[in-house]
From TrEMBL:
Pfam families: UDPGT. Belongs to the UDP-glycosyltransferase family. GO terms for molecular function: UDP-glucosyltransferase activity. It comes from Nicotiana tabacum (Common tobacco). This is UDP-glycosyltransferase 91C1-like. InterPro entries: UDP-glycosyltransf_plant, UDP_glucos_trans. Gene3D superfamilies: Glycogen Phosphorylase B. Keywords: Transferase. Coiled coil: none annotated.
Amino acid sequence: MKKDSIHVVMVPWLAFGHLQPFFQLSIALSKEKVHVSFLSTPRNIKRLPKLPPNLEPLVNLVEFPLPSLDDKSLLPKDAEATLDIPADKVQYLTVAYDLLQQPIKHFITREKPDWIIVDFSPYWIAEIARDLDIPMLQFSMFTAATLLFFGQLDHEGQEEPKPLHELLLSPPPCGDFKSTVAYKKYEVAELFAAIAAENASGKSSMEREAIMGKASRAMALRTCAEFENEYLVSPRNYKKPLIPIGLLLPGELPVGENDLALPQWQKMSKWLDEQKPRSVVFVGFGSECRFTKNQVYEIANGLQLSELPFFWILQKPSWALNDVDALPSGFGAATEGRGFVHIGWAPQKEILAHPSIGGSLFHAGWGSAIETLRYGHVLVVLPFVFDQGLNARLLVEKGVAIEVKRNEEDGSFSGKDIAMSLREAMVLEEGEELRARARKAAAIFGDRKLQDSYVRNFVEYLKSNGNLR
């Protein structure tokens, strides 16, 4: 017996690399007549895109004020997401987030949803779901390759587990094929500090992930078999069902409907219209990459040396006194006419959709990779944090990306190496096969009908495997 209508509660972590995919999944489910309660804090909900009017009755955006900490100096006022704070303050955001346990428990107790779809961080949801006998499912931001990689870190049942640092440098066992997905030496120390080290909340990211994985009935992944089926079917440590739910393609809203884009878009659009088709490199590293001055200047140097047209969206660095200080002296004059630099927010999806864009220099975040490959653009990857290094190796393994060469010990990179990677990807003869594979990938990443079919299959799973009420 299947239910015709179900109610799902979404509980994402307070980072926009998590909030946005959860919001996209909420919209995708609502299109299949699933009722969704999306739980977050007031400021984060206000920063999400507007819901399409026809879906507003099906998606309830539920605001929970973020509790303040006793020591007001630990977390800045109005800091409700990781992009609002430096990296060393994220542990205190986690402490405040954990204080939402009781308000969220009261909401779930009152609403009695059919499913709870949860992120890695709110480990206390596992107890709530168990006490209320509500099935829980984890939605992971990872690719199947990344999940398989992290699966080897589970020491349960291993007689002599390898040291964590050694495992982080080793690709996962994959049966009939050899994976290249692993961290590099310079990435390991920072990653270990981010996911395994103790923090003010008392629970590391690895501990939270382990609790959620064991308590969930299944793991939903933002991926599809057409791209990485070998990782979905490989032998793995993860004991629960893995459900690919498609790539969750963003909606087709014209930029003119987005109030944030209006003041800037005319100038950007005019410059892009003047460029040749597929000639421009889009450069964007999101809102949460914290660059040093040297890193920004080396990226600028690489763009100058490449002699390619580029469109660079740069978040103003904390060390920059003003917008002029954010770039090397003379950079603007040296690249005048062939480069466009915008400091601050810009409509990335609309820029990537422009026919003048042919490639992208970015951090290898999975959401940005999806947005870019949707249009068949070639990728030049320069990863920095969390799963970006693993994504970079997967994209290179799939033949749609070039990774910028870096120093194996400290991760430093040069403008010269960026320029070489950009020129190979965009114009040199040796990059032609790469460009062809990227254009071919658009047949998968841009196929809305295919990706929507994954969501429908996911809804059928929810209807068939939840508790009957």
